[in-house]
Amino acid sequence: MRLRTPKTAADSIDTLSAAASPAAVGQEPAKAPLHALSGVTAALPARELWAGMHLPGFDAAENLARLAASAQRFTPRVSLVPPDGLVLEVKGSLHLFAGIAGLRDELVQLTKECLQLQPVLAFAPTPLAALTAARAGKPLVITAAAQLTGQLAPLPLTALRWPEETLARLARTGVRTVGAALRLPRAGFARRFGAVQLAMLDTLTGRRPDVRAAFHARTRFRRRCELDCELTDHARLLAALAPLFAALGAFLTARQCGVLELECLLVHRQQAATRCVLTLAAPCADEQRLAALFSERLGALPLCAPVRACELRAAVLLPYLPGAHSLWQPGEHGGDAGAVTGDLIECLRARLGSEAVQGLTLREGHRPESAWALIGPPLAAGPRRVLPACAADAARSDCRPASRRPLWILPAPRPLMARNGLPRRRGPLRIVSEPERIETGWWDGEEIARDYYTAVDARGVRLWIFRERAAPHGWFLHGVFG
């Protein structure tokens, strides 16, 4: 006869804990129903309290982010649940807003002001539990982990937003609520309905940690300075702006960021504010350089009225890593000229305006007059090697001179005089290259058929000319080499 040794209470708890572990998901031997494990986890104290906010019929990601930024006045732990939800960890903020009732009123009022919507709010120790209750339209307040499973049991499974196929299969078996799903055996549930749904049930009831990415509002700089008296002198305005630029430099340095665009509003008494915008060629965080460039821009800006206040803004911040300087000066032994190029671009744009300095880009095609285009403000991205139109020929050492393009292309070819079939410009031209034939454009109505040559005039100027292949075989000047 064999005698059974009775198990102790500790042995029973160990057995239940092993059945509830994530490693047991999908394993056949674990047959313990989920509701039997609720007492084990319910004994743990609720260290967090989450507010779940559901916005019925809402679908605007940008406005949801704006609401999350405003909700950070209550707690720094705010997470987005697109497209219509937010979760906030509020346990440490309850004493500041007269408890849960006061915080609920504040959140409802904030949502009405931001989105003109009436939200559904629920509170629970886990974020998914609070959000599920809010989606089900139940404004529950669950402050203890021991109450979590019992309060969530009547909620419909549709609030978990599982796939429609999974919900339909569960409904055919009579499982339509959270409590009914929790009573199913773990192994069979994972095998028939998926381990993802089982893990979500564990997250819902607190058996599994719910890690969520915190929302971070976009960082921007904004400082305002009220002047002691109205000013019209640019030098005094710059002196008044000096503390704002110092604050901007400290702000950018602390965040390792730079700015590409800086805006200053000059407020007048009875006129609309004057907007002064400084656009840079590369991200900058140096307050002295920003102030010097802004002085150039402000000096070229007429003031319609005396200024009574100034406001400095930087809406977009970019990561900024100062580049290493070359040992050699620009142009010496391969010294980097990128910084000098950026300084020149920024100075020209500060003095002449952003529209006065344009960038160039290459376009695909063989027609010289359409091989480049303006692309707006240029950016200083370091020195770049721009290949000519025939990149394959330029890569070879035996590239013909005729395959090179002049830097100065005329807006339209100019006719040249000819004598005995040879071109003339301030005297006869001496052709110094082989012909380069370009025939293209037949598909868009701008067909060309030309033979291009490099020629030298009587003064030694190198010209880029062509002869039309169609009658009357005229000669034209199309570019000038530097």
Write structural notes for this entry.
With 482 residues, the protein is α+β, with helices and mostly antiparallel strands. It has three domains: 42-205, Reverse transcriptase/Diguanylate cyclase domain (Alpha-Beta Plaits, 2-Layer Sandwich); 221-319, Dna Ligase, domain 1 (2-Layer Sandwich), CATH 3.30.1490.100; 401-480, no CATH class. Helices cover 30% and strands 23% of the residues. It is built from 14 helices and 18 strands. It has helices at residues 9-20, 38-42, 61-71, 99-115, 127-135, 148-152, 164-172, 178-182, 186-193, 195-205, 234-255, 287-299, 338-352, 391-394, and strands spanning 50-54, 78-81, 85-89, 120-124, 221-231, 257-267, 274-284, 307-314, 317-319, 360-362, 372-374, 408-419, 422-424, 430-431, 436-440, 448-456, 462-468, 475-480. The strands form four sheets. Strands 12, 13, 14, 15, 16, 17 and 18 form a seven-stranded antiparallel β-sheet that branches. Strands 5, 6, 7, 8 and 9 form a five-stranded antiparallel β-sheet that branches.
User: Percent of residues in beta strands?
Assistant: 15-25%
CATH architecture of the largest domain: 2-Layer Sandwich
Number of strands: 18
The major beta sheet can be summarized as: 7 strands, antiparallel
* Highest CATH level, the class of the largest domain: Alpha Beta
How much helix is in the residues? 25-40%
Helix/strand-derived class? alpha+beta
According to CATH, what is the topology of the largest domain?
Alpha-Beta Plaits
